[in-house]
Specification:
- Chain A: Residues 12-140 form the PX domain.
- Chain A: GO terms for molecular function: phosphatidylinositol-3-phosphate binding.
- The structure holds 2 protein chains of 2 kinds.
- Chain A is mainly α.
- In chain A, 69% of the residues lie in helices and 8% in strands.
- Chain A contains 10 helices and 3 strands; from the N terminus they run H-E-E-E-H-H-H-H-H-H-H-H-H.
- Chain A has a 3-stranded antiparallel sheet with strand order 1-2-3.
- In chain A, helix 8 (225-299) runs antiparallel to helix 10.
- Chain A is elongated.
- Chain A starts with a helix and ends with a helix.
- In chain B, strand 1 (48-50) and strand 2 (59-61) form a beta hairpin.
- Chain B has helices at residues 64-68, 80-86, 140-153, 177-196, 204-211, 214-222, 227-241, 251-299, 306-371, 376-453, and strands at 48-50, 59-61, 98-109, 114-124, 133-139.
- A 3-stranded antiparallel sheet of chain B has the order 3-4-5.
- Classes of the chains: A mainly alpha, B mainly alpha.
- At the A-B interface, helix 7 and helix 10 of A face helix 8, helix 9 and helix 10 of B.
Amino acid sequence: MEDCLSKKIEITVSEAEKRTGRNAMNMQETYTAYLIETRAVESQNEGQCSPVDSLWRRYSEFELLRNYLLVTYPHIVVPPLPEKRADFVWHKLSADNMDPDFVERRRIGLENFLLRVASHPVLCQDNIFYSFLTQEGGWKEMVNETGFQLKADSRLKALNATFRVKNPDKRFTELKHYSDELQSVISHLLRVRARVADRLYGVYKVHGNYGRVFSEWSAIEKEMGDGLQSAGHHMDVYAASIDDILEEEEHYADQLKEYLFYAEALRAVCRKHELMQYDLEMAAQDLTSKKQQCEELATGTVRTFSLKGMTSKLFGQETPEQREAKIKVLEEQIQEGEEQLKSKNLEGRDFVKSAWADIERFKEQKNHDLKEALISYAVMQISMCKKGIQVWTNAKECFSKM
Amino acid sequence: MEAEGRVPGPPLPPLPSGGGGGGAGAEPEPPACAAGAARAPPPAAGVLEFDDEEDDLEVFSKDASLAEANSFSPSMPISPSSMINQYKFEDEPELRDLFITVDDPESHVTAIETFITYRVVTKTSRSEFDSSEYEVRRRYQDFLWLKSKLEEAHPTLIIPPLPEKFIMKGMVERFSDEFIETRRKALHKFLNRIADHPTLTFNEDFKIFLTAQAWELSSHKKQGPGLLSRMGQTVRAVASSVRGGVKNRPEMFTEMNDYMETFSQKINVLDKIAHRIYKEEREYFNEMKEYGPIHTLWSASEEDIADSLKGVASCIDKCCKATEKRMAGLSENLLPIIHEYVLYSEILMGVLKRRDQIQGELDSKVDALANRKAEKDLITEEIGKLEDKVECANNALKADWDRWKQNMQYDMRSAFTNVAENNLHYYEECLATWESFLTSQTADLHVEEDSEDRP
């Protein structure tokens, strides 16, 4: 199997910069641009430093790239972008897109997106993707020339339409349920996590109030003064420690968010299957009804009610010539229909096969990533506990000297 | 006269039975409302024992470790007899000869009112007591009476605080179990502090409080300086409180005053902070309760990572319980102690004022002497008496102040050390939980890696 792009070149989103410019409606706007750097992977030779190529892209261009990939590879679970707007924030976090912390986390998320695409066996071979990384000017035009926009619109419509499929592949039905559940449970988790973070912040910060009071109180005490004063210092340390702790936890939340958004991508693949299946069923139905019509015309029996039949009864039978003509047309249509049905069937089966292969790949990736994320969460908790133990051990010593 | 017959009121739950050791499990649920509630005071101890006579005070300092084998633990109503056994006898075996417990709150309903009485059990070896064991029932009013009698008799001694009459903040119902339990603990502490005070312990009204039956106490209350004379005292006190006794106040008492003003400020702020911390911890606990189960819910849709998710859920639940313990520790130890010292700061300001008043009486008599040459002898005699009175008052206050400061230091040290220990236990428990989860996860990974290596 061909090596993924990620093995050949190093990709980083190394910087973020505020820019001002004019948008499509000639209004001034502020946005952030991200610097994408690429470098060929060196082959074990130190000292041989390959040159770094770089270009600037903004979030909307990433979006364009992703939409293109979604439309062009409907059987692939396309990696998601980091959130457009800050969601699941807790009170200290800013919901402002221009906030430096948000921009920083987005930078990391965009880099992650590129790496995911670059390491995907199918997506990494796409030219548009490669150009996105390497060709600053004219990229947008290149994307639009693929004509994917037309497909994009109908895809959007399809995703939102409701229709009943009679015989979907059960695996996809189950998968769709799973993706709904995943979405729901991760959202819930992220919401509660944000509230827990908020409360934890409160607990730590309130302890900071001790510092000043202890200090002022120690001024009037002789024996207790030293103990109080130094204990107060440790309380300040304790209160300050929560900032780093929660910042780290935001990265964990981002990892979960990625899979929240992945659930949508998963769902899209399932929907595509449903769409194709529905299409197939409709085509088959149509073919069957045409065959029936043909038969009826040929034998003269009316088995099913049809308006045409009624009107011809009311207004008189057709001439044999007219009937012959109709039969001929129908026969042509039937032949066409059968060919179409065959190819749709084939398409459908191919889709199922390749989609399911990617889904398996995705499942493995998901299990691996989530397990690691949970482990990293445990590591964070352990670190937080150790810090707590240190501070309170020191505080206890000070208190015992009061 | 209140009917103290056992008219069955709403049945109150039995208090947790006594047993040694720290009472982390004493309250099964976190208190519904923290703000303002007078929480149970833990042992005060750290007692200095005084010689019998007030004038010649010798101070023996007791080993602080004795105090820890404490009979003061009101969260476990240990019976007086078991308290005797717990007590370590060192240099002076007859040091503690009065053991008091307050327990068994009971509701009484009359036509006019509903009130609670508490059982007060006293065990003693003192000869002044006719019996060695007493059991009486007292209501809050009776405690108030005792306090005021003690203040009357010893205006410049530091009378321990009583739990407040009402709770202003918070929506704790007057007769909620929590409120009653908190009050019971505080009353227990109140009596024991008096018993422990070198002077107050021998007060006659105190003895009557501990021993008299209900009707006896009632009739005794009606005796003594009548309402009018008490009013007279108050009037005099008010009169001399107007700039009385400040002019010639000894330096030491001005220092005390300054100290108390600052201390009072700081302790009130600490009270607020401590309550705020409790509130934040409780809110954190509430959110955590929801956090763990989501992971369990998620595990139901997963296969490969189901175990990891369940593991995280279990860790979070354990940490949640640990946080509950931490909260309970706060409400059982730090909060009540700080609250007591808020009350103490008011008491001490009052004591200092009363000393000033006594001084003021002397000062005004001295002024009178300067003006009226006629009744010189009489006034001189009165001045002599007042000088004695002032000296007594000053000495009493000075000694009691030193004692109070030492107790305060001990109480604060142990309360805050306890807070630190609670937090340490909390973090240690959480650490162990997460570490064991991590071990289980990484062990799995190693197993997976090994199995991949095999052909």
